[in-house]
Design a protein that fits this description.
It is a single chain. With 216 residues, the protein is α/β, with parallel strands linked by helices. It folds into two domains: 6-17 and 89-213, Rossmann fold; 19-86, DNA polymerase, domain 1 (Orthogonal Bundle), CATH 1.10.150. The chain contains eight helices and six strands. It has helices spanning 19-32, 39-45, 50-63, 71-86, 95-105, 117-124, 152-161, 175-184, and strands spanning 6-9, 109-112, 135-137, 168-172, 187-190, 206-207. Helix 6 links the parallel strand 2 (109-112) and strand 3. The protein is globular. The N and C termini lie close together (8 Å).
Length: 216
């Protein structure tokens, strides 16, 4: 198999085991306003930008007769919870080894994440191995027009690396992220969370049980 032109990595739930922590923060914030979230709703938030998630949660709260809130009011409850949790996130199995393998082979890497720069800095600080991924597109990047499931984050990552998107491999865990990568034209590898519905993912993606299955 030909070596990829680049490896484009999601962060949350793919390189770092943050998704249960994000889910807990959204759950506690929504419950604070009287609207606990269902498992399928928490799944729908995976892979999306913070403000996009906030807008969705606000809609759910208001659709069930909850208070009229702003994103700022919701996030004022949610963010301290998330920040206290996320500094404890651990690497996903095989993630540090795959990043080091890309380094050894000289395969260009980029982070294509919905998380803001500040959030990435917070989560990455305990993990020096992530410093090898120098090219990064964050959810609040001024050049990023639309978040996942739109393809923009992957297109921008490939552009900054100067590689062909069609020859790049994207690694994702969420349906929204996989849809974004597929729409961009990448070869998509998915490490789906346990219990997720395969029908939520685009056709043609490669499903993996873990990043340790990646052959480079």
């Amino acid at each position: 198999m030909a070596q990829p032109a680049a490896c484009l990595f999601d962060l949350d739930g793919l390189l770092l085991d943050t998704e249960p922590l994000h889910a807990r923060a959204w759950q506690e914030a929504a419950s604070h306003f009287g609207r606990p979230l269902q498992p399928h709703e928490l799944m729908a938030l995976r892979g999306r930008r913070r403000l996009d998630c906030a807008g969705q949660v606000l809609q759910w709260i208001q659709d069930t007769g909850g208070p009229a809130l702003s994103s700022e009011e919701l996030l004022a409850v949610r963010q301290p919870i998330a920040e206290a949790l996320l500094v404890h996130a651990q690497p996903m199995p095989g993630a540090p080894e795959l990043v080091r393998r890309c380094q050894e082979l000289g395969v260009p890497m980029a982070l294509a994440t919905s998380s803001s720069r500040q959030a990435v800095d917070l989560k990455a600080a305990p993990h020096p191995w992530l410093a090898a991924i120098r090219t990064r597109v964050h959810g609040d990047d001024p050049e990023l027009r639309t978040g996942k499931p739109a393809p923009d984050v992957f297109l921008l990552a490939a552009e900054r690396l100067g590689v062909a998107i069609s020859r790049s491999w994207a690694f994702e865990d969420s349906p929204a992220g996989a849809q974004a990568a597929a729409a961009a034209g990448c070869r998509v590898h998915v490490v789906a969370p346990p219990g997720s519905d395969p029908q939520l993912y685009p056709a043609g993606v490669t499903h993996l049980s873990g990043l340790d299955q990646v052959q480079l």
